[in-house]
Amino acid sequence: MAVELKKRRPRPSWHKLTVSRVRALTEDAVEVTLAVPEHLREAFDFKPGQHLTFQRVEPDGSEVRRSYSLASTPRELAEHGTLRLGIRSIPKGNFSGYANRRLQTGDVLEVLPPLGHFWTEIRPDRHYGSVVAGSGITPIIAISTAALEAGARVTLLYSNRTETSTMFAEELRELARVHGDRLRLHHIRTRTEGATPLLTGRLTPERLGDFLGSAVAAGEIDEWFLCGPYEMVLGVKEVLEEAGAREIHTELYTV
């Protein structure tokens, strides 16, 4: 009897990438742009929604590894050789604090090629919906941008404390300007007044149910992407399932 042995996939290896830009998004979040040399672009090819893992040795010799989602699209990598990430500083966050306060253009970071299952094959005939909170917008803006560029429709419900704490606000406005009615963008404000009473206050399952009844029907959306803290994602998923949503992708995030 012949036994066929399947080849094991090689383990991903660390690469050194240079920081080409650090840009403030909010008072506690930055966008980090990495330059990818030509010979590594194939290794760093990715699907919108995937993440990078970073490795850093602390002054005391301890090793820190953290993963952050990509905010850019594969087209940006192919055309410009860059990858962009959004990193929000969190309490006691060794890497996020370092990225927000000390990271500079020209610094070199150790990075693993993209990983993760929070993605789909983008199709122009689909309508993609997202419910997201805080820094969970990072993979969602990559997915939404790729979908809009492909000709698809996008509905995005985005919860933040205030307008000034909203990551990638400028990029979202530009997407709305360029793609018009194919992007339906709804901002929820939890600590200031939103555009309507429905968009003001914490995103509870009850509030989402009211939103689905008035602004968008769950059945209109072909695929949903949920990204944020555990309780929000779980509650939203239950509401969407009860409303008859067909396909739901989830990612848990510290926002």
From TrEMBL:
<keyword id="KW-0411">Iron-sulfur</keyword>
<dbReference type="GO" id="GO:0046872">
    <property type="term" value="F:metal ion binding"/>
</dbReference>
<dbReference type="InterPro" id="IPR008333">
    <property type="entry name" value="Cbr1-like_FAD-bd_dom"/>
</dbReference>
<keyword id="KW-0479">Metal-binding</keyword>
<dbReference type="InterPro" id="IPR050415">
    <property type="entry name" value="MRET"/>
</dbReference>
<keyword id="KW-0285">Flavoprotein</keyword>
<keyword id="KW-0274">FAD</keyword>
<dbReference type="GO" id="GO:0050660">
    <property type="term" value="F:flavin adenine dinucleotide binding"/>
</dbReference>
<keyword id="KW-0001">2Fe-2S</keyword>
<keyword id="KW-0560">Oxidoreductase</keyword>
<dbReference type="InterPro" id="IPR001433">
    <property type="entry name" value="OxRdtase_FAD/NAD-bd"/>
</dbReference>
<dbReference type="GO" id="GO:0016491">
    <property type="term" value="F:oxidoreductase activity"/>
</dbReference>
<dbReference type="GO" id="GO:0051537">
    <property type="term" value="F:2 iron, 2 sulfur cluster binding"/>
</dbReference>
<feature type="domain" description="FAD-binding FR-type">
    <location>
        <begin position="12"/>
        <end position="121"/>
    </location>
</feature>
<dbReference type="Pfam" id="PF00970">
    <property type="entry name" value="FAD_binding_6"/>
</dbReference>
<dbReference type="InterPro" id="IPR017927">
    <property type="entry name" value="FAD-bd_FR_type"/>
</dbReference>
<keyword id="KW-0408">Iron</keyword>
<dbReference type="Pfam" id="PF00175">
    <property type="entry name" value="NAD_binding_1"/>
</dbReference>
<protein>
    <submittedName>
        <fullName>Ring-1,2-phenylacetyl-CoA epoxidase subunit PaaE</fullName>
    </submittedName>
</protein>
<dbReference type="InterPro" id="IPR039261">
    <property type="entry name" value="FNR_nucleotide-bd"/>
</dbReference>
<dbReference type="InterPro" id="IPR017938">
    <property type="entry name" value="Riboflavin_synthase-like_b-brl"/>
</dbReference>
